[in-house]
Amino acid sequence: MAKLLEYQGKEWLRKAGIPVPVGRAASSPEEAEQIAAELGKPVAVKAQVQAGGRGKSGAVKLVNTPAEAREAATSILGTVIKGYPVRKVLVEEKLDIAREYYVTIIVNSARNARCPMMMFSTEGGMDIESVPEDKIFRLLISPLFGLEVYDAVDMLVKAGIPNDQVTTFANLLVKLWNAYKKYDCFTLEINPLVMTADGQLVAADCKMEVDNSSVYRHPEMGIEIARDFPHEPTELDRIGWGIEKADTRGSGFVMSMGFDEKSPGYIGYHPIGGGSAMMGMDALNKVGLKPANYADTSGNPVASKVYRVAKVVLSQPNIDGYLLGGFMMANQEQWHHAHAVVKALREILPKKPGLPCVLLLCGNKEEESLAILREGLSNVEGATRVEIYGREHVTDTDFIGQRLLALVKEYQAEKRKQGGDQ
């Protein structure tokens, strides 16, 4: 899912009529100090990253003066939290908290539900994961009729919200549902939802994830990449998303995998299909090779899209090989892959002579596809380590892995020799 940072999600909550603390994001200690001075009151300085547990990791600091806000921002900016570097902090007013609650709307994919579900608890905050199940109340929401006020009231009464506060809570929950629907969210969470000492409900935090398939409907959100990454997007991730964004015919997914250009044994990895991809990963891991990236061209993409993916995968610097892993009997016409890979390799191999390439294609139009590969690569400059296989090795990951490893060892020895000769 496309995840927004806290300060971004809070801005959309504010526009939906849900109260949020006053403040804004800062990119430097000086800016944090300026914002705190403008607010003129104690503030919270909070790291802005796509990771939970900020409070426990010391990335949320409560301070009383602008100078302290500057000091807090200095200590937070540039740190790394669960693999994400902190580039911004949110500086916002410190709330006078009387009580904390938890509320979220997610998609319940259970067979007997398959609809949005609201979860509410009177015990919100950092330790929500340890709250007993009987303290979390769930409400299935009809995609057709939405969240009705009386349904929200019923859940709140069961949760123990006092009668004189039920209407205030119910109105906020309905606004939260309307925001969830309007912004095409997959997840919309407030933890904690704070009751202040003067009786106001305020969203003290916000986790907002927009459904990838709906990002195109919200250009106003400025979402750069409609994907969920376990790391900050790399240049390869941005290029890969550009392929998918420009052409939705079949999959053209490309994602980085922590490729270290200075370390040997990384392979440009081009699988076809998710299950097939896992088999190829096993083939690489068993022989001590590593995927430089993850790619997927399933779902019957056109040759032009497959070519763009193959070209991106092959263009990665200092890879020691390329694996086209069709570990499945695909019903898509494989000659689209064959034409695309031939074109990409004819352009790349003269620049990377001897690069090991193991190509496995199986399924519909297999014979024609293998013929295209063999003929198209027969007289290509630099194509000295290209091996082509079909259905006889469709599930033979040991064989494919060993063949690629043998070619990689030759290639690495050749590179070392050339380096020594120079």
UniProtKB/TrEMBL annotation:
PROSITE patterns: ATP_GRASP
Gene3D superfamilies the record matches: ATP-grasp fold, A domain, ATP-grasp fold, B domain, Succinyl-CoA synthetase domains
Superkingdom to which the source organism belongs: Bacteria
Alphabetical list of Pfam families matching this protein: ATP-grasp_2
Keywords associated with the record: ATP-binding, Ligase, Nucleotide-binding, Tricarboxylic acid cycle
GO MF: ATP binding; metal ion binding; succinate-CoA ligase (ADP-forming) activity
Species whose genome carries this gene: Neomoorella humiferrea
Listed GO CC annotations: cytosol; succinate-CoA ligase complex
GO BP annotations listed: succinyl-CoA metabolic process; tricarboxylic acid cycle
ATP-grasp domain mapped to chain residues: 10-224
InterPro entries per record: ATP-grasp, ATP-grasp_succ-CoA_synth-type, ATP_grasp_subdomain_1, Succ_CoA_ligase-like_bsu, Succinyl-CoA_synth-like
Name of the protein described by the UniProt record: Succinyl-CoA ligase [ADP-forming] subunit beta
Broad enzyme group: ligase
EC number: 6.2.1.5
